[in-house]
Write a structure and sequence with these properties.
By secondary structure, the protein is of the alpha/beta class. The chain has one domain (about 5-240): 3-Layer(aba) Sandwich (Rossmann fold). It contains 10 helices and 8 strands. It has an 8-stranded mixed β-sheet with strand order 1-2-4-3-5-6-7-8, sandwiched between helices. α9 (about 200-210) links the parallel β7 (about 185-190) and β8 (about 215-220). The longest helix is centred in the middle third of the chain and has 26 residues, at about 80-105. The radius of gyration is 17 Å and the shape is globular.
């Protein structure tokens, strides 16, 4: 399996940001880390190994980026408004730097699907909904789609506009809605076991339904906990059966 490490100085974030790429061909899967983790997390917890057959066959090319959650929502020393500013800088990094990098590494026509587990699920969904002209779909695993779960009581416009449970019900711009509705890959997955919150997935699916957006909601069994064995089962199954 081909594996490449790339890094560049991000103007949006003011620091070097590494990206690891796996494979040569296929649609682009953009992995966003969980909570305080890094760009090698999905490799370290063996999820990349579960995708190896699809990577080596040219079905998917995987791109995994670094998290800056420790510099935003998980930084208890930072004021809430500064957390939101840093988070928006991360969004700009993805839209203006990572997406062009993916296109240059594949082609302008290559579909891009964001994907993440836990906090990464919220980010993945948010990135897709904010730029459905750049991102073609999302696989969100074990997510909670309300940013207030992480903002520790802080609320302002930027929390609102990065919290899909808040802004999507009020989104009426047909430019966005048409592009979101055109996606065939909005997959909302959750386990039903310990530390999972399937009700959060059901609530968000209800928001999508009310906006006329097609989606797939898949709640797995009570044996599927909020942990890596669940995500190592979910993601290859979806790559195999939905793409």
């Amino acid at each position: 399996m081909k594996r490449e490490l790339t890094s560049w100085y991000s103007p949006a974030l003011g620091k070097d940001m590494p990206v690891v790429t796996y494979g040569d061909f296929g649609f682009a899967l953009l992995l966003v880390p969980t909570a305080a983790a890094d760009y090698l997390e999905y490799e370290r917890f063996l999820l990349i190994d579960t995708l190896k057959p699809y990577i080596e066959s040219g079905k998917v090319k995987v791109f995994s980026v670094n998290s800056i959650n420790n510099e935003s929502w998980l930084n208890d020393e930072m004021a809430g408004e500064h957390k939101a500013i840093r988070h928006n800088q991360f969004n700009e990094y993805i839209f203006n730097e990572v997406i062009p990098f993916i296109k240059n590494s594949t082609s302008q026509e290559t579909p891009i699907i964001t994907c993440g587990a836990s906090f990464g699920a919220l980010h993945s969904m948010n990135l897709f909904l904010k730029r459905p002209d750049l991102i073609n779909g999302v696989i969100a695993m074990s997510g909670v789609y309300d940013l207030h779960e992480y903002s520790k009581g802080f609320n302002d416009d930027q929390v609102y506009f990065n919290s899909p449970m808040d802004y999507l019900p009020n989104l009426n711009d047909e430019w966005y809605l048409d592009k979101i509705r055109s996606s065939h890959h909005i997959h909302i997955l959750s386990g039903g076991g310990d530390y999972e919150d399937p009700e959060a997935s059901r609530k968000f699916a209800g928001v999508l339904y009310n906006k006329g957006i097609n989606y797939e909601l898949d709640i797995w069994g009570a044996d599927m906990k909020h942990d890596w064995p669940t995500w190592r089962a979910m993601l290859p199954y979806y790559i195999e059966t939905r793409f």
